[in-house]
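Private note to self, pasted from the team thread so I don't lose it. Backbone tokens:
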């Protein structure tokens, strides 16, 4: 079986070879991830290096589904590989267990978990509650893991499994992260689960849905939380991060209970609340919590709906409004003050000076533009909050990008928004309950905003570029000009709605792709086409070859022919030189070009791991593979930015560590040691002819030699 060849890639793996991972050296499996994934894709899974030198068994990122066409013999082979990966390789530290895996490999998975040498994180993600299985058997296997650090429950979790996991949660001494934020179950035994969680003394990060905490009123939240939660949160001395989510089906979060309990908590650092509905009477308990807590540094508030009480009106409501100017709001088409009765309590609750809070994230899509502007101005007056992330939608996204520059708080505020824009502007269309954003508004904002500190997603629904507008030069069209120069666009989604516009693509594609490549602000690009047209895909492939700022790309091809062309063009030697693209997804379920798609994802996974390895080097893991990654990352500003994010270090400290690491790696002796050429320092035998030896060269010469060397130039002595 060890010599069996995968059907799609013609590759084989040696599943009998033991794990070779050790300090400073990667396991041999890192050099054959493409071969391993050619088997794992048959069950919709793959191996990824989600953290430096550690592998995770997760859902395949390509978007294809091959499970239906997998033969019985192939399932037997994959079962053997699964067991070997989970049980024998201590470099495999995380596994996602889904329906596709559990349905055909139940006993194998349980035995592998029980025998695992390195597994630390388990995610259970099921679509169906009708999966016939001994849930107690699976829970028992998980309970046997003495190194279990993280357990996540996603999707439809059977009540029997919840019951079986409860005592494991209560007794685990190693579990530090538990998540059930989107768990769904029919009549879940919530009391058992909650009691198990509340008895645990090792969990430091917890994410829960209110369905896992008790039943209550969907609208009011009255009685929706088990009273034991209040006592647990009040007395807890180990939980530093808490997230509670209210699903659309309810129940609501009991904000009063949570905030009163946490006001007495002395260790919580982060709190995320995702409400069903934002209500004005929630503001006071949240204000008391933020004012009283000495440890809470990060607070996030999101919601599905907003209570319209206190909505903007063109009438004055009280003496305070006399001092506030009356302005016309372009969103609600009314004249009213900026600080309305609806937004005032939230300004007072969230932006009061003198609290321990450092970072605030709040959804503002339920407020009008003037109310958002008032919130922004209050942030400018706040002296203690370090960063505010405002999540807005549609027209407010672009208006807030413009208003941010006028507020004086642009260094401390991120506008995280999403807008759908129709092009050409006069095309009749509607997005749900929202009117699309006029293209002219997007143009105006692009002309005004000069900063790139926003996280704005623009969905451009394109109905015509040339054929209806009468334009003849693609490069001079409004859409291409905007894509090229708009610094407020971080995520760009292009959706071509008509077949006639698809025909325009062949003429406009080079100009559009060149515009994306020229705009360093765009980090993610998604392209979708109307079906049944064969289109020219080479410009998109060329874009990915040349771009050094795009981090994510997704494509919904118009037909199999175009998809094949794109994959063929992309997998040219130039793609190997791209080290910034770390996410690539195809909205395409066909099984064509599987070997080529595996090769593409292998490069993407390499890029995904680079900042993580580099961050490990910066934070102290000195090894050849981490230093080599740092050397590559340090040559790209986009990758340096990603390194800072991955390392989770403040920017000033991160820059200091990066500079120190670069100076250390520039040393010739350090290079030789990391490359494995010398053990400690460069030493040479006595010269027989009297000529200068390498060890005799001064430091200046050695540094000059070092500039022409890369760690990847030195091959390992063993593989």
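Design output:
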């Amino acid at each position: 079986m060890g010599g069996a060849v995968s059907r799609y890639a013609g590759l084989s793996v040696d599943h009998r070879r033991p794990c070779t991972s050790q300090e400073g050296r990667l396991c041999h499996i890192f050099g054959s991830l493409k071969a391993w994934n050619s088997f794992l894709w048959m069950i919709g899974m793959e191996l990824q290096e989600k953290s430096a030198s550690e592998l995770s068994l997760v859902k395949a990122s390509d978007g294809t589904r091959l499970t239906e066409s997998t033969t019985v013999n192939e399932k037997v082979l994959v079962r053997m590989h699964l067991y070997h990966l989970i049980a024998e390789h201590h470099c495999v530290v995380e596994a996602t267990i889904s329906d596709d895996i559990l349905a055909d490999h139940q006993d194998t998975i349980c035995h592998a978990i029980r025998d695992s040498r390195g597994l630390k994180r388990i995610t259970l993600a099921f679509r169906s509650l009708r999966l016939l299985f001994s849930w107690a058997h699976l829970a028992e296997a998980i309970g046997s893991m003495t190194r279990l650090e993280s357990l996540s429950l996603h999707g439809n979790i059977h009540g029997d499994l919840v019951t079986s996991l409860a005592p494991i949660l209560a007794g685990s001494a190693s579990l530090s992260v538990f998540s059930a934020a989107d768990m769904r179950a029919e009549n879940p035994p919530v009391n058992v689960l909650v009691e198990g969680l509340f008895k645990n003394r090792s969990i430091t990060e917890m994410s829960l849905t209110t369905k896992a905490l008790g039943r209550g009123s969907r609208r009011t939240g009255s009685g929706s939380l088990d009273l034991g939660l209040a006592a647990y949160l009040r007395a807890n001395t180990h939980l530093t991060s808490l997230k509670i989510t209210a699903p659309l089906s309810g129940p609501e979060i009991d904000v009063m209970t949570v905030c009163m309990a946490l006001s007495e908590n002395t260790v919580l650092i982060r709190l995320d609340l995702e409400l069903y509905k934002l209500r004005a009477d929630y503001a006071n308990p949240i204000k008391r919590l933020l004012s009283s807590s000495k440890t809470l540094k990060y607070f996030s508030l999101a919601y599905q709906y907003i209570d319209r009480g206190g909505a903007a009106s063109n009438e004055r409501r009280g003496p305070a409004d006399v001092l506030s100017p009356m302005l016309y709001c372009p969103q609600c088409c009314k004249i009213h003050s900026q600080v309305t009765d609806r937004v005032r309590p939230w300004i007072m609750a969230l932006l009061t000076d003198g609290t321990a809070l450092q970072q605030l994230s709040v959804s503002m899509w339920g407020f009008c533009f003037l109310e958002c502007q008032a919130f922004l101005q209050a942030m400018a007056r706040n002296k203690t909050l370090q960063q505010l992330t405002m999540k807005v939608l549609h027209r407010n996204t672009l208006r807030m990008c413009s208003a941010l520059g006028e507020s004086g708080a642009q260094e401390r505020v991120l506008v995280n928004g999403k807008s759908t824009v129709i092009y050409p502007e006069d095309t009749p269309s509607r997005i749900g309950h929202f009117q699309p954003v006029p293209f002219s508004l997007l143009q105006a904002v692009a002309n005004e905003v000069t900063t790139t500190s926003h996280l704005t997603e623009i969905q451009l629904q394109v109905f015509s570029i040339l054929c209806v507008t009468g334009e003849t030069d693609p490069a001079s069209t409004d859409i291409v000009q905007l894509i090229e120069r708009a610094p407020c666009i971080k995520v760009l989604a292009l959706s071509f709605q008509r077949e006639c516009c698809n025909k325009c693509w062949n003429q406009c594609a080079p100009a559009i792709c060149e515009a994306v490549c020229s705009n360093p602000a765009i980090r993610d690009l998604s392209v979708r086409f109307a079906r049944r047209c064969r289109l020219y895909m080479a410009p998109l492939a060329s874009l990915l070859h040349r771009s050094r700022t795009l981090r994510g790309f997704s494509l919904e091809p118009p037909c199999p022919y175009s998809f094949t062309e794109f994959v063929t063009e992309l997998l040219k030697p130039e793609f190997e030189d791209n080290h910034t693209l770390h996410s690539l997804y195809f909205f395409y379920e066909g099984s064509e070009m599987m070997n080529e798609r595996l090769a593409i994802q292998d490069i993407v996974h390499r890029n995904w791991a680079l900042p993580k390895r580099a961050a490990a080097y910066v934070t102290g893991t000195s090894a050849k593979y981490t230093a080599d990654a740092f050397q590559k990352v340090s040559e790209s500003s986009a990758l340096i930015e990603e390194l800072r994010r991955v390392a989770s270090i403040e920017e000033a400290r991160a820059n200091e560590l990066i500079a120190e690491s670069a100076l250390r790696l520039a040393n010739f002796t350090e290079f030789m040691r990391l490359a494995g050429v010398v053990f400690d320092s460069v030493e040479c035998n006595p010269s027989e002819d009297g000529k200068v030896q390498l060890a005799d060269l001064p430091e200046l010469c050695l540094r000059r030699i070092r500039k022409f060397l890369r760690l990847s130039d030195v091959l390992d002595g063993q593989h």
